[in-house]
Design brief:
Layout lengths: L4 E3 L4 H4 L3 H11 L5 E5 L3 E4 L2 E4 L5 E2 L4 E4 L2 E5 L10 H27 L5 H21 L5 H33 L5 H4 L3 H29 L18 H36 L3 H33 L3 H23 L2 H43 L1
Antiparallel strand pairs: 1-2, 2-7, 3-4, 4-5, 6-7
Helix pairs in contact: 3-4, 3-10, 4-5, 4-7, 5-7, 5-8, 5-9, 8-9, 9-10
InterPro entries: GPCR_2-like_7TM (IPR017981), GPCR_2_secretin-like (IPR000832), GPCR_LN-TM7 (IPR053231)
Subcellular location: Membrane
Keywords: Membrane, Transmembrane, Transmembrane helix
């Protein structure tokens, strides 16, 4: 299988070089780490620097040596370089996002707002997002581990988008004039099982096909698990295996949301189901916001791949980290959550009042008994 990137002495060009030549290259680059070779097509040139596709690692003019078929670079340390603002923003924003998702899960569990199909879909989406962002925070350890993590990330990010499509379809299905009879005849639990099969299994099939092609087809190389970021390093593979499904999901989402908006307006005109209409309008707004947020995040990701400017990378990291925060805000604003929290606070207030009154009553009795004892003792 042809690789986009090699460590010596696996590179064809490098095997023709003597040990003294390699030493000269290392000396010229002042390289105390490992020397690495990138094939043409795996990096982008801008001004006098180059950016590695898939990792966005930037090398200045003095950090690489051009060759006929690629470039030699002195490999930088793994991406946990705390002096890099891009790394800091990624770690901070993703940590905040993951923490917010954990809090959202706990709120759902405490208030028991996970019985409806809508709530279960939101929880599934949040779960996929939680694991995707957590896996993104895992640093590189070794090549095999990084490759496995890249495959896992590929699956999880596809699952995140797939669940947005499932939620958008569920809302459109409520209003669609051509409803599917199989889904129509099932209850909420059975319907969610079908949604789960689509939400989790479809991305698995896509990733499985990609992995099998990567392993057994000689002309296909996805480049799972680069040395800096555990992701897909082949630009064409990213466009085919990730961009295409993501774009399809977003188009499908906006189409379903359009159907839903039309249905909501239709219900407004033809019926007096104000409460149901308000609930569906809220769902429509939530799904639209999620789709726009994810869409903007991934559009920024591809802009960064083409133009790896520092401010663009930092902006992308911040927007990407806002997803978990939004899920938490959306959870807190859930009517059942607000009602549940309010009722629990009321219970604690009543319990505290009873406890306080009991304490005061007990204290009064003790004082009275003390006075009586003193009176009789005199």
């Amino acid at each position: 299988m042809p690789a986009n990137r090699y460590r010596f002495p696996l590179v064809e060009n490098a095997t023709k070089l003597r040990e003294t030549s390699l030493s000269l290259l290392e000396g010229e680059l002042n390289c105390s780490a490992s020397l690495t070779f990138y094939n043409n097509g795996t990096f982008l040139k801008f001004n006098s620097s180059i950016s590695i596709i898939g990792t966005n690692q930037i090398y200045s003019e003095k950090e690489f040596i051009p060759d006929d078929s690629g470039i030699f670079v002195c490999e930088k340390p793994p991406w946990y370089d705390l002096y890099d603002i891009r790394v800091l923003t990624t770690i901070v924003t993703f940590t905040i996002s993951v923490t917010c998702l954990i809090i959202a899960f706990l709120i759902h569990l405490c208030t028991k707002t996970y019985n409806s199909t809508h709530d279960r879909c939101i929880l599934s989406f949040s779960g996929a997002l939680f694991f995707a962002q957590t896996a993104s925070l895992v640093p590189h350890m070794n090549t095999d581990f990084c490759k496995a993590n890249a495959i896992l990330l590929h699956y999880l990010w596809l699952a995140v988008f797939n669940w947005t499509s499932v939620m958008a379809f569920d809302l459109a299905y409520t209003f669609s004039v051509c409803r599917i009879s199989v889904l129509r005849s099932t209850d909420s639990q059975s319907l969610f099982k079908k949604y789960s099969l689509i939400g989790w299994f479809l991305p698995f099939v896509i990733v499985l096909i990609c992995v099998l092609l990567d392993l057994f087809h000689e002309s296909v190389d996805f480049g799972y698990g680069s040395m800096i970021h555990c992701w897909i390093s082949n630009k064409t593979a990213v466009y085919i295996s990730t961009t295409t499904p993501v774009v399809i999901c977003l188009i499908f989402n906006f189409a379903c949301i359009g159907v839903s908006i039309y249905g909501i307006e239709y219900v407004k005109k033809r019926s007096l189901q104000v409460q149901k209409n308000t609930k569906d309008s809220r769902r429509c707004t939530v799904y639209l916001q999620i789709s726009i947020m994810l869409g903007v995040t991934w559009i920024l990701a591809y802009v960064v791949m083409a133009y790896p400017a520092l401010w663009l990378q930092v902006t992308h990291n911040i927007v990407n980290g806002c997803q978990g925060v939004y899920v938490l805000v959306m959870t807190i604003k859930h009517p059942k959550v607000l009602k549940g929290v309010s009722s629990r606070l009321q219970m604690y207030k009543v319990s505290f009042s009873k406890s306080k009154s009991l304490t005061i009553s007990t204290s009064s009795e003790v004082k009275l008994n003390t006075k009586i004892k003193r009176h009789y003792s005199i």
